[in-house]
Amino acid sequence: QVQLVESGGGLVQAGGSLSLSCTTSGLDFEDYIMGWFRQTPGKEREGVACISWKSSSATLYGDSVKGRFTISRDDAKNTVTLLMNSLKPEDTAMYYCAASHRYFGLGTTDYNYWGQGTQVTVTS
User: Fold this and answer.
1) Which of 40, 30, 33, 35 is nearest to 61 (CA)?
2) Cβ-contact 74, 81 below 8 angstroms
3) What is the pLDDT of residues 75-122, one digit of tens each?
4) What are the φ and ψ backbone dihedral angles of 68, each rounded to 5 degrees?
5) What is the DSSP letter of 112?
6) What pLDDT does residue 22 have?
7) I want to staple 35 with a disulfide (CB 3.0 to 4.6 A). Which of 50, 86, 106, 115 is the partner?
């Protein structure tokens, strides 16, 4: 059974930082592209960042987070991390990690597995 479990969300003031982690089980982590997405009530899920297989470790970021967020992976720990700096109130959302066997991008439809999410709230 594949599981993706996010952690690290919480309440932070604007300008602060948070680090989200997603630990997976039940899949060959090194064979998957990993992504982070976020969603607020009433809005579509938005791609935040993704990272390709370790051999390449290419990354892609949404325009709204470029230069502030960093995605990384640790294949030995089956974990993908999203370091979020210079947080803004508009970053408030439920953050999800996802795994894709083939697709490298920030669209949601081609990710195979999803976690349950972790809430990030940024106060002004």
Assistant:
1) 35
2) yes
3) 999 999 999 999 999 999 999 999 999 999 999 999 999 999 999 999
4) -115, -35
5) -
6) 98
7) 50
Distance CA 97, CA 111 (A): 10
Q: What is the pLDDT of residue 33?
A: 97
The answer to whether 100 and 116 are in contact (CB under 8 A) is no
Contact between 84 and 69 (Cβ < 8 Å)? yes
Q: Taking 90 as the threshold, does the pLDDT of residue 54 lie above it?
A: no
Average pLDDT over residues 16-34: 97
Beta-ladder partners of 31:
none
Task: Tell me what pLDDT residue 56 has.
Answer: 76
Q: 115 exposed, middle or buried (CB, 10 Å; 0-12, 13-18, 19+)? A: buried
Amino acid at 109: T
In the three-class reduction of DSSP (H, G, I as helix; E, B as strand; rest coil), residue 91 is classed as: helix
104 Cβ contact list (under 8 Å, min separation 6): 33, 50, 52, 58, 60
99: which DSSP letter? Answer: E
